Amino acid sequence: MVSFILRRLGLMVVILFIVSVIIFSLVNVLPGDPALLKLGQEASPEAVEKLRIEMGLNDPLYVQYFNWISNVIQGDLGRSYIDNTAVTEILKQKIPVTLQLTVISFFVAILIALPAGIISASRKGTLWDYSSTLFALSGVSIPPFFLGILLIFIFSIGLGWFPPSGYTPFWQDPMRSLMLMILPAITVGIRLSAELTRMLRSSLLEVLQSEYIRTGYAKGLREKGVIFKHALRNAMIPVITVSGLQVGSFLGGAVITETIFAVPGLGQLVVNSILTRDFPVVQGAVMFMAFAVVFINFTVDMLYSVLDPRIKLSGGAK
Amino acid sequence: MSSKDQLAVKNLHVGFQNKKSFTKIIDGINFSVKKGETLCIVGESGCGKSLTSLSIMGLLPKTGKVSEGEILFDGQDLTGLNEKQMSKIRGNEISMIFQEPMTSLNPVHKIGWQISESIVLHQKLSKKQAEEKAIDMLKLVGIPSPDKRIHQYPHELSGGMRQRVMIAMALSCNPKLLIADEPTTALDVTIQAQILELMNKLKTELHMSIIMITHDLGVVSEIADKVLVMYAGKVVEYSDVKTLFANPQHPYTQGLIESIPKLNEEQDELPIIKGSVPSPDEMPKGCRFSTRCPYATNACFNEVPPMISGEAGHQVHCWKYTECWEIVEKEGLIDAGMRETAAASQLIGS
Ligand SMILES: Nc1ncnc2c1ncn2[C@@H]1O[C@H](COP(=O)(O)OP(=O)(O)OP(=O)(O)O)[C@@H](O)[C@H]1O
Ligand SMILES: [Mg+2]
Hints:
The structure holds two protein chains of two kinds. Chain A is an all-alpha fold. Chain A folds into two domains: 2-87, no CATH class; 91-307, MetI-like fold. Chain A has 13 helices and no strands. The radius of gyration of chain A is 24 Å and the shape is globular. Chain B is an alpha/beta fold. Chain B has helices at 49-57, 83-89, 111-123, 127-140, 146-149, 159-171, 189-206, 217-223, 241-246, 251-258, 298-302, 325-331, 336-343; strands at 5-17, 22-34, 38-42, 64-73, 76-77, 94-97, 177-181, 209-213, 226-231, 234-240, 307-309, 315-317. In chain B, the strands form two sheets. Chain B has an eight-stranded mixed β-sheet, with helices on both faces. Chain B has a four-stranded antiparallel β-sheet with strand order 2-1-4-5, with helices on one face. The A-B interface holds A 210-212, 214-223, 229-230, 233-234, 307-310 and B 57, 59, 83-84, 87-92, 95-96, 98, 100, 103-109, 117-118, 121-122, 153, 155, 166, 169. Bound molecules: adenosine-5'-triphosphate and magnesium ion.
């Protein structure tokens, strides 16, 4: 167990290092001069050149990378080119927003997918099953911008149940914060729930064919007991994998949804910073996302061993 | 049906319903098991042994259906019960052990939990008491240090151990009838012998009836009181075990017994029954074994053989033992009168 964790931590460091190199290179091949952008189009070439030297932009790339990464390791992600605030400060504001959206979306997804998956697997071939398959299909294929606008149209403009867009931090006004988050969370969560429903259905159907399920019935369990005590836990293993991958990508920010609902999360931050060539912010934000994804994968692996005792978290080869 | 019958299966028909048609697999079988008695069902792969046992349990696959007949357990017809009533009987009064010990236990739950589950379900004991009972059961089936084993997962146990756990689970509510569907096929010979010995011991201790399904006649000779020989969904011979081995009547049974390897005899080649089982849609009209039977005549192909009874309930379904066999053999034809004499024939010499 300990050696498994150490091994995974080592792997995480390697992955994050590689990611950092890639981010840095990609950001630096973007066209556009941050110094010029900062000073405005009318600035004199001398002034721009002076600023470039100040910002270290004329140093060879590997020197720039080294300077950046050694600061990152010390927890200093640099300062925004635009307004000179520390990148860590910016992230501190944005991460809770995205985190809140992610958690609520995931909750929405699970709330829909668990019952839908269970019902459609146990009532295979019935109207229930077809409806949930239809739901899953539309959920996966409907574009988020369309769904988002549709939801605003129906529930904010039409019914007036929820405010259409904006953001209030949770600790300032929990109720309003939640109300604002519900529509974006549904927009993001529906897609995941559709995918999870499909996964859970097929995985449950497979598990329900197992001999130990027959044993469950032979013991005298009814269908409900068999599904909840014997099938579900086995069926959740592939579902957890997909959830992990998806939640990882949510943490990268749901750019379109955040834009539609004016949720000031990480996705918006990255897009805006790319447009303004605010390299330190882009790099810092993407580093955080990479970290989040790696961390979630780690958590998923730990969950496996909780769900399935046959998977041992040992130091040996997998 | 005698009053001591624990289970009596009467004229059971089982088949599968697909979109268009109903394929009958089991075609009118009859047998009974007395209290404390062991019945072995033998027959080659695909003859419907598992379907028979699953019908008794009410656990046929979704498309499977009992289309005719009765399954009387303690005099009550199980085919008429609903899911809720059946679930009270399963695991409680009738238990079943399956063919595959490696996959019949849930991989994500501890052994102790899995055994206690049915105890809690049927006997309304507390978790703690159920766990103690589980330990007792494991002790009963000969698993060393059961108090530690209950905290292990199935993958930490060998195949033989797992089958013992299955047996412990099946016996945990003192069932009146235990159905064991080839419980030892997946295990190696020494373990197999241990499990059989265990079942014999438990049968006398707990005074239950057993239906043991197997295609191994060695197993039959060790454990059976009565034997039901099935071929392609029908009974071909039904007898007590001594009579069957001493005096097998049906050509199929004779073939099975001859194909047991004998150590003390010089045999170059084991006699085998030639050919293979016909598929349900190309079943011969008459005797189902006729396509492979060395004695088959025209009559055998076209007319279902009558049941001939002998001493001590010995039954065989074969034209060869009817009083009109000589004529049948010569002419290959049967008329109504012969059908009547045939049905009234008595099996002699058994
Ligand atoms: N789900 C099913 N759908 C259709 N046909 C089936 C199904 N299950 C079994 N059968 C058919 O029923 C017949 C009897 O099957 P069964 O499992 O009872 O055989 P068996 O005697 O137990 O054989 P074995 O010794 O191999 O276990 C087989 O010919 C098989 O093709
Ligand atoms: Mg079978």
